[in-house]
Amino acid sequence: MSWIHSLLFLFLVFPWCITGESSSPEVTDDGAPMDKSEREALYSAIQGFVGDSWNGSDLYPDPCGWTPIQGVSCDIYDDLWYVTELTLGLVHENSLSCTASLKIKPQLFELKHLKSLTFFDCFTSSTTISKEDWVNFGNSLESLEFRSNPGLTGELPETIGSLSNLKSLVVLENGFSGKLPRSVCNLSSLKRLVLAGNSFTGTIPDCFNGFKDLLILDLSRNSLSGTLPSSIGEMVSLLKLDLSNNHLEGKLPQEIGLLKNLTLLDLRNNRISGGLSQSVENIRSLADLVLSGNPMDSDDVMGVKWENMGNLVILDLSKMGLRGEIPSGLIKLKRLRFLGLNDNELTGTVPSKELETLPCLGALYINGNNLTGELRFSRKFYEKMGTRFKASKNPNLCQYDIVSESPKYVLPLGLKPCKMKKTEGDLVILQTLSNLKKEESSSSMSLRVTRHVLSKGFMWDLLLELSFIVLLK
């Protein structure tokens, strides 16, 4: 073989020997290359969150090969690896933990194929997010989450509204404040919008008419005020609506009755004052309805045709100032598991036998009312409920003692035992049911000693009782 043929053979077999230094993509262990600028942007962005001491040197050849970084996922575009998901914070034991002096580096926004970005328990010291750079993710980002970052303060950037492909925006339990940015109205592709557990103030923007695909809207645990906008009724796909623990007021808009797919409506601890019967009873899909802590008009709530809402599983009407008797329609809710009527001004008797026929009922709270009469629930009912049944603080409500040796049997606390009248000739005797049960197992002579006799022959009866005492001695 001539020297020319030998040289050609070397070129064909060992082409890497003559490539030299180049900016070409590096080949990973599984054969796919990663653009060098993409890797450098990722490493720089991560260093901003976990500290400069981290350089990824133990992850050779790159984070998309056989040694990936926890919280980083990649995909191939035009035969090159690009980062598509980035999660920062201790989501898992081996996740990258954020340093106390973290900073968002501009290189983060150079990850041009990033679809999902999550910050979990990263920002502990006071930090504000700049408005710039978010527009760079406008065509790629589909999920953005800030979870449990108490140090994230200030307003949510208006530029968040430029993320036109966003399907999930979760801003949960952070330190954000100020008004909700109206630019959120531009995110019409959203399926999930969660802005709960912050300090947002002001009114809810009236711009939900374009949110045809939204499934979850959670604005709970803020300081939002004003009335619920009528455009909320145009979110025709909505499954969950949680506006609890705010300062919302006024009447519910009738348009809320158009949410035919809604399964959860949680409005607890607001100042909503009416509009319930005109709207909610039309939502036959509702499974969870929580209205406690709202000063609604009693007639409005009590006028709801509850029997038409057969899918209800949870119904909480506590602390609403309700008056009148327990609505009869409630006893027709065969799927009901939780019924909260406590701390109202309800009167009348408790339909014990009817409520006991509800096959799924596992928690019943009627305490803190003005209910009267006798509780006639069976021993089996009390055993089933345990501490999930409360009827105390009803001054004129009493209970019968039921003899049971079962350790599961727990009588409701705070209720006096019912008294019974018993007639013996011309004697009218008052005694508790428990004493009556003792009479069945004791001699009539011993029991007469403990009775309080209320008759016109009082003196004779007293002497009779004293004689029995002497005989017993």
From TrEMBL:
InterPro entries: Leu-rich_rpt, LRR_dom_sf, PRK1-6/SRF4-like. GO terms for biological process: response to fungus. GO terms for cellular component: plasma membrane. Residues 1-20 form the signal peptide. It holds the Pfam family LRR_8. Keywords: Cell membrane, Leucine-rich repeat, Membrane, Repeat, Signal. It is found in: Cell membrane. Its main location: membrane. This is Piriformospora indica-insensitive protein 2. The lineage of its organism: Eukaryota, Viridiplantae, Streptophyta, Embryophyta, Tracheophyta.
